[in-house]
Design a protein that fits this description.
Length: 356
Amino acid sequence: MPSLTGLRFLAALAVFCCHAGLLWQHAGGWPGLRVLNPGGPLGVTLFFILSGFVLTYSSRREDSAGKFWRRRTAKILPGHTIAWIVAVSVVGLGVARPLQEAGVTAWQDLLNLMLVHTFVPSPSRLAAGNGVAWSLSCEAFFYLLFPALLPLINTISRRRLPLAALATALAAWIPATIAWMCGARGHAMDVGLHEILRPPISYAYVFPPSRLPDFVLGMILARLHDHYPPKQPRVAAAVLALAAAIGLCLLLPAPYSVSALPLVPLALIIRFVAARDAQGLSSPLRRPALIRLGKWSYAFYLVHFTILAVLFHVWSEGWYVVPIGLALVATLLVSAAVYRFVEYPCCRTTGAAQGQ
């Protein structure tokens, strides 16, 4: 399913645009850039669903938990470690910490490296190390549970798969509702880098158990792909549904907008894109350039925020489209190198699929 690889880069690019807009706003830029704010949550949610889908679809009957965890470790940890070293070194060299949170300690940097910092998501812990690694902490939690979850998902009868998907999507609204009842207010357009780090919204957005429904929904989608392939995979209709969900971000509180609200439209996009590949239908996401960018997307995600923060720190001219453009080029070059010389060799030695 090469189109899913191309889709990964679009998700990573949405996160990049979100962070670029947030840094520009933080520097006193145009308030209209708030329209980019939902891009980060959308991109990460798509990553979580897609991860569950691909791992389930490519699961091996003869696999063991140990072999699975070894492949996941080879895929995730080398790039994460390099990005963490760079992020911590940038702060040590005197460049401002990207998230600008006081009280960050070396111990919290170490918790970030170990990918356990999101289980108590305080602002200083989430600002430590490489800030974007919060999503890797969630993924590590998903991987830990995957060998136990897969047999449970496989026991769901064919007829009950649609109901299971619906129940899982509804479960994603529970953490958002709890966060709202605990006082989280505002809308997705108003949530900046600092607001999203603070409880109660951080417990709906970055707390690993709260994001588990995203991953499980992806697992169920993989089984639906086998048993109920859509006859007419209307990707455009799913994109319109996603646009409508983004519009609802203006009406619903932020905890719903950054997690639960876009879940179903994004799941439909993945389902329809996968179906178009399976049916041999045309897809712009299968273009070689986009597939190549999709293979770089993990490294792109890891390094983009540090590169953006450095260029915003050294640039003082006020026209921030220049450092954003430079950051995009630099991120592409660095991610290509990390993929070629780190991620691909590590995955090849353990047999991990590049799309996983």
